[in-house]
């Protein structure tokens, strides 16, 4: 596979074309941003961890019947993926109150929900990713009703699989963000990444935060937390 010109540079990844029009190469960076790009920094080694972690988790999800964009890990930071057009929805699944949920509804962090919740925001940086409901997404032409149904079904399945897996690692899956894409033939697959950048992961015993909140909230020990999650994952996958 030949890596060709850069197609796009995002906050945490670069995307390159290849000689196959249906394949792209994603390259993970150490750059970190938070609060819609207002806070910027680097987390040394994050790109390597997120690349490998996302690939291992996506391969596990495939085994449980969730289609993903993953094709092949090419190097520490590079992965070959199926080319998709991203559905411009950020899908957030929550098991426990935290972050924007706690802030918006005025509740403490750590309330364990009886059943998981799902919410969508419109993936649009200039609008700061506003929250929307399914009807809004359909009205805006972001996805069809059938696509949203499938995205919901996959998202709850992903939650079941990941929650159980992280528990084996002594980690509580609090919440996470997913992005889906459409292949050339319209098939919906999981895209983007699954990593401590996109999930809240708490140590089950101590409650210690092992995710990007350490960077967002200046808690220190960011690199160590990412490395700890990766260590536990490789020991259990
Ligand atoms: N999240 C993300 N990208 C975003 C917004 C949220 O990956 O642009 C993840 C975040 O890491 C957390 C979950 O989605 O695991 C829920 O985030 P929340 O809505 O609580 O927003 P935040 O507090 O991160 O602003």
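^ Assign residues to that structure.
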């Amino acid at each position: 596979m030949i890596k060709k010109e850069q197609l796009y540079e995002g906050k945490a990844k670069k995307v390159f074309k290849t000689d196959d029009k249906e394949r792209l190469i994603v390259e993970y960076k150490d750059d970190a941003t938070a609060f819609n790009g207002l806070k910027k920094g680097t987390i040394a080694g994050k790109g390597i961890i997120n690349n490998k972690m996302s690939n291992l988790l996506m391969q596990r999800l495939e085994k449980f019947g969730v289609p993903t964009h993953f094709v092949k890990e090419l190097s520490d930071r590079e992965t070959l993926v199926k080319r998709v057009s991203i559905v411009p929805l950020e899908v957030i699944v929550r098991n426990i109150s935290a972050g924007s949920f706690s802030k918006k509804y005025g509740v403490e962090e750590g309330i364990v929900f009886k059943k998981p919740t799902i919410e969508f925001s419109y993936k649009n940086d200039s609008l700061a990713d506003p929250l929307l409901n399914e009807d809004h997404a359909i009205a805006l032409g972001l996805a069809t009703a059938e696509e949203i149904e499938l995205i919901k079904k996959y998202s709850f399945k992903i939650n079941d699989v990941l929650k159980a897996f992280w528990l084996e690692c002594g980690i509580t899956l609090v919440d996470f963000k997913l992005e889906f894409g459409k292949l050339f033939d319209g098939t919906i697959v999981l895209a983007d990444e699954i990593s401590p950048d996109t999930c809240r992961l708490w140590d089950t015993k101590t409650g210690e935060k092992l995710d990007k909140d350490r960077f967002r909230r200046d808690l220190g020990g960011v690199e160590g937390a990412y490395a700890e999650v990766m260590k536990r994952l490789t020991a259990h996958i």
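The radius of gyration is 17 Å.
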